[in-house]
Amino acid sequence: MATKLLTPAEVCEILSIKPRTLEDWRLGRSGPSLPFVRLGRTVRYREEDVEALIKESLSMDPTPIQRHR
After folding, report:
1. pLDDT band at 7 (very low <50, low <70, confident <90, very high)
2. Are 41 and 1 in contact (CB under 8 A)?
3. Where in the numbering of this chain does the Helix-turn-helix domain appear (predicted)?
4. How far apart are CA 18 and CA 20, in angstroms?
């Protein structure tokens, strides 16, 4: 079975994040480690890695997220 590769735009849509956020993750500036594939100048993400990130991020903690103002 072939691995489905997602574009950065598709990953951003799935995770509801901005392209700059995904770029920061890829460059190791912040956020989780999300493996990527570089094909020449093109960047792609394996669908199973995106799904794994979602699973790892699941939280059963009912405490609301505190936002800094």
Report:
1. very high
2. no
3. 5-56
4. 5
Q: With 70 as the cut, is the pLDDT of residue 64 above it? A: no
E strands, the chain, in order: 5-6, 37-39, 42-46
Query: Which residue in this structure is represented by tokens 């989780």?
Result: 32
Q: Say how many C-beta atoms besides its own lie within 10 A of residue 39's C-beta.
A: 8
Token couple for 17: 């994040």
Beta bridge partners of 5: 46
What tens digit of pLDDT does each residue of 13-60 get?
Answer: 999 999 999 999 999 888 898 999 999 999 999 999 999 999 988 877
